[in-house]
């Protein structure tokens, strides 16, 4: 029986992931902002294998205690899924210092707290699997998504370095990049908006309105996305970067082509900065 530690399980992909893991017969420690809401959403099925944890991921001491509670309850920990996060739509100049810090607190410092709590035991055991849930916006960027992209780009870099650091300990790391998925991620319950809009960003205002009208029309199926995340961990044969969704795949390919073109366009200037041989 596999034991999972999953963050961000109040709704969306995280909730569906917990539901499927319990159906599989696995043990699940699920962090949430509301244990009551999580329990109501899941019902009684598999409740004996569920450890709901009301947790502020930015509190490192509380995260460490939650991980200890997980290992005490289930006797170990096999897979960690860092899924907690939310969106933010606004121009760079519109994001306040508090909004920027909150985004990174949840999506980077929260992940770091979880990693510091779980890695010592995984290293000692010589095994473990970490899945970091990023986004296609961790591989490409759109106007208005600058703050969210900044956090997800940071998560991508963290994941790449982490994978190289812990491979020798028998710990596997994957980062998954879903595209637009049919959850409430684009509703105001999961999407931050600037408190004060700046003049001149009409295109971003129109894009915001379009995104708020999008729920229910996204290409991605959260049931299939959750199943794919489970398969990434269980199969052990997924690439380090696993895009999810045809839109994510297409956008990632486009970004690679654009980046390759940029690098080639700057080749002559790049080579000109080397030290000239004596």
UniProtKB/TrEMBL annotation:
Family statement drawn from the similarity comment of this UniProt entry: Belongs to the short-chain dehydrogenases/reductases (SDR) family.
Protein name: SDR family NAD(P)-dependent oxidoreductase
Domain Ketoreductase: 2-179
A Pfam family assignment: adh_short
Keywords: Oxidoreductase
Record-linked SMART domains: PKS_KR (SM00822)
């Amino acid at each position: 029986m596999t034991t999972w530690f999953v963050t961000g399980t109040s709704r969306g992909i995280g909730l569906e992931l917990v539901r499927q893991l319990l159906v599989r017969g696995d043990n699940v420690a699920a962090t949430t902002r509301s244990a009551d809401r999580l329990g109501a959403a899941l019902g009684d099925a598999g409740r004996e294998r569920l450890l709901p944890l009301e947790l502020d991921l930015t509190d490192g001491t509380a995260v460490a205690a939650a991980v200890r509670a997980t290992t005490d309850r289930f006797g170990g920990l096999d897979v960690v899924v860092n899924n907690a996060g939310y969106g933010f739509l606004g121009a760079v100049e519109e994001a306040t210092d508090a909004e920027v810090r909150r985004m990174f607190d949840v999506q980077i410092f929260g992940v770091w707290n979880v990693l510091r709590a779980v890695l010592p035991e995984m290293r000692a055991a010589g095994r473990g699997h970490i899945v970091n849930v990023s986004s296609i916006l961790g591989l490409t960027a759109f106007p208005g998504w600058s703050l969210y992209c900044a956090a997800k780009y940071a998560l991508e870099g963290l994941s790449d370095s982490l994978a190289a650091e812990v491979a020798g300990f028998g710990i596997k790391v994957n980062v998954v990049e879903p595209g637009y998925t049919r959850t409430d991620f684009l509703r105001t319950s999961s999407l931050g908006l600037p408190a004060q809009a700046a003049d001149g960003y009409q295109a971003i205002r129109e894009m915001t309105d379009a995104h708020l009208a999008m729920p229910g029309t996204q290409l991605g199926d959260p049931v299939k996305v959750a199943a794919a995340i489970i398969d990434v961990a269980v199969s052990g044969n997924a690439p380090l970067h696993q895009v999810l969704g045809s839109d994510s795949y297409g956008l990632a390919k486009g970004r690679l082509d654009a980046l390759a073109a940029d690098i080639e366009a700057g080749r002559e200037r790049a080579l000109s900065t080397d030290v000239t041989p004596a």
